[in-house]
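Example 3.2
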Amino acid sequence: MNKYTCIIVDDELQAAELLADIVKTYYKNMEVLHTYTQWSKALDGLRNIPCDVLFLDISMQGKSGLDLLKSLPDLKSEVVFITAHSNHALEAFKLSAAGYILKPVDEAEFVKTVDKALERVQHKRSSGKGVTHSGQMQYKIGIPGNNAIDYINMDDIVYLEALSSYTKVFTGGKKIISSYNLQKFKHILDHQLFFQVHRSYIVNLNHVRRYENIGLIIMADNAEIPVSKNFRDDFLNLFGRVRNESTRK
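Structure, written as tokens:
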């Protein structure tokens, strides 16, 4: 079963919680990563934590959900607006929204709209591409450390290594220590590109150069990564996909 993630932005906490319950009821394979009720916190969160689907209210305190989306031109998520106002639909679809649902939420309409959004997610995954709301291709990810956030191309990441509650991110000649743990990265990284091969390692499939039968991967930067027995069969089954992914370079 395909796994998905979502973020909910609604300045009414009760409405956000109700929507989260609907998501959990109909989509057991979708994880609600965050719920934001404040515009500024939502902006910061969406800049740093990618998700497959963004459920976004329009009428918010201070600025609107449309303003929020315009402030995130590199956003890769499929956006579903959920609002009490019908007069913003045209502008929403001009911003490439996957759907526009009026409150109170009709659950049948919700399922139909989210299914459409997930079809778009699957299409992007199968093509290995992400389309931003400015129409440009992008693969960037924000990697937070203790004092700053490094923005790098996702495909530049060679592998990630767990370091207690932190993570070392290797980009080929550069190492970034992130305040996120490895499991956090497992949720937010593109699952078409990255695969966990060990409890302490996630690798970028585009950078796998060699597999040795003793259970060792040689990466493009010559790093040697162990493959746990629990992950070995699934990893070996991915080799056909590794060849396909490499054509994107």
